[in-house]
Fold these 4 entries.
Entry 1:
Amino acid sequence: MDYIIRKANLDDREAIELLIAESARGLSREDYSEQQVESAIRTVFGVDTDLIVDSTYFVADSFGMLIGCGGWSKRRTLFGGDRFASRDSSELDPRVEAARVRAFFVHPEHARRGIGRAILSLCESVARTNSFRSIELMATLPGVKMYRACGYEGSERVEYRIGEGMSIEFVPMQKELQ
């Protein structure tokens, strides 16, 4: 499959939202219930406009179709799109704080072909050039395997409330940038 990785722009938001929903529905069923997936799409998963405005969010574009997305952030928010209430857009200090890996999703038809890894590698490289020495993320359960293969550490699950009577588990992970 031919694709390019490019910076996301505000015109991509609708396509990114659709990609996120398709990815979550298609790749999360082994780890989360249908109710958890749908609640997460409504409350947590989604576009974080700050990342697009900061030029730190990327998409894998295959002839005009978005097949992957993900980014890094210099802001405190660890996860969650625009709809997620617990957001802190203040900037991190790269001398003492870790950059954030954010909102990685791949279209189910293009999963396990290196798209996520390619975007992640780019994010790590750019974070490094912005003086960050470490990077952290809040992995969805389906993403843990890829992040581990890319050198991230962490295995303890944490539970987050994502709706009335609904919660979802994530795994905090981190990596030192060389």
Entry 2:
Amino acid sequence: MSDETIDDLMEATYCALCKHGYAELTMQDIAAESAKSKGTLHYHFDSKQDLLESFLEFLLDRFEERTETVPGETPAERLHEFTDELLTPSDDSAEEFRTAILEIKAQSPYNEAYRERLREFDRALRERIATLVADGLEAGEFRDDVEPEATADFLVTLFHGAQTRATAVDRPPERTRQYVHEYIDETLRPAAASGGDASPPTDGTGDGEANG
């Protein structure tokens, strides 16, 4: 399958998910959003699940490409930018897409293929954050007792919780984004730099917004 065909089908899947959600989505719905025919979809994918598995892989690939280089002069600035990337709606369809993804997540306990792809996304997210925190430690920007892996696990849990709350109870993630920025400046940074003396999580047990 050519890159052009992949991009077209994945974009069509995104649009169809936003319009119809996961449960009501059909291959015809996806074809209607695509320049390709329904026959082309069935030629490349055996079923809706097969297509959605590929769609999740596509999202992971794009996420890794997009976040391979995070803008910012320092690790702390890059962590702030990464937070904005995760918790700022990208377009007007972001709410509908979050709802569709939450529906897919709800299927993951019963669908090993979905669960494995969501695990991979979770892993990539944790690794990106842990690397940024480790870079900050090396640069002397963060407290010596900050644990990159534990901090990353804490923030990933918080990000997932914020996204779920935004969909389930209509709590915009912008408030959480503000809290994360404060956490970076007031907790991760040394007291002399932040003006405070709060301690960061060191065991990965904190879950912030996730418990709602």
Entry 3:
Amino acid sequence: MRLRIFIKGVPFFILVRGMPSLLRNYREIRKQAKQYGMVFPFGKFYPCIEEKYQKSGTASGHYFHQDLLVANKIYINKPVKHVDIGSRIDGFVAHVASFRDIEVFDIRDMAEQIRNIHFKRLDIMDGNAVSHDYCDSISCLHALEHFGLGRYGDRVDYNGHLLGWENIYKMLKKGGKCYFSVPIGKQRIEFNAHRVFSVEYLVNVMIGSRYKIDSFSYVNDKGDLVSDAALDEGSVKNSFSLNYGCGIFELSKI
């Protein structure tokens, strides 16, 4: 059998390094297949040369850390009704749905019916769409920064994040928990992807006296989690010297 190999996207040095062992293993598996009667016949050639030189997985970055951290807090706090606004279905929402019910509101539709996930299509910037004192626990992870930028079919509104934030406040009962995360660094809009928030703006303008900050963690520019970081004046002022980090807040409504 003549073997033609074309592997798109694999660096040349990985091909040089991995090809001899790949061909050696291929000859061996073909030999063994004949001995066992070809119970599994060979389909297309599908080499994955680079993967044995990689780590077992990626345990870093904004989504990995925020999803795991906040899901664990919800598990510990055991709210009566938890609602999520726009977080990743295949990340955070799936984590929570593995151990409890979760209601999910998003401006985009979701056709699938998944156990423990109760979905409703809703524009959280629309104050008429939300109910006051609706839940005792709410999350909005890596979503608020998109509101009003048109990225997901929402209407363009320069203050879309504030409209959404106000409605989240209305939905949450007094004493309830709010978990939210957004990109942090030098404050800016990178249209139409997202906003990046300064920590000073988040603490003084958005949170202010309406919430008690129970904990603050952040993911740094390297993708590593810094848990229970102190919100001292200097760090707040310079946003922990981050360019594009992720601030993760656990709040209680006052």
Entry 4:
Amino acid sequence: MEIEALWKEYKENGCTAARDKLLAEYTPLVRYTAQRMAISLPDSIQLGDLIGAGVIGLIKAVESFDAAKEVKFETYATHKIRGSILDDLREQDWIPRSIRQKSKMVKNAYVELEKEFGRTPYDNEVAAYLQLKPAEFEELLSEIAPATIISLNEIIPDHYGESTDTSLIDTLEDKDIVNPLDRLGMEEIKKVLAEALLALPENERHVVALYHYEELTLKEIGIAMNLTESRVSQIHSKAMLKLKAKLLLKM
């Protein structure tokens, strides 16, 4: 009841004291989210930096939260916190250029083979296209995992390849869009993404759901699915690359 009173005081009266109390109340959510994300990041990324970026996301979440939408604040705030941390990571560009180039190479392979076959290519077909042995392809997937771990938060290009203000994760959120044309565009992206998810093999859909929706770590997913963390990382990388290839072809 005290939390509800704070929300009412802040939203109806703009009370900064109530806002500060709300921020203090939900600050542990920032640390929790940052710690979970840090598990999948290189050791060079400091937890304190992630928490600092996450606090910015929490502030935005408190300021923009609308209880009338009947969404739990913790769920809403977690997406904002993750997004803020990922924005900070992108600005730091913590992924080596060589890894980004390899990730782009594999993504392009999926795109070209999708065009040729009219379906999502199998692992052996992608490996053959890249002139790699199956074991080498699996090793490559592990190597580029850092570049695909946040791909749902990457910016979606428009029809001309130009950058937009919309990320993949934005298409999964229920946002108020006044412009009917914008709303139709978002609905189309949601439809394409839903179809792409359904086209994934069951193990890849499972990993995507557990990582992006249940917010389990790769290690936790491995335990749940009786797989090694490295294998889960490979499965996640393939799923993300396939989703990106589908979106690039459809949009």
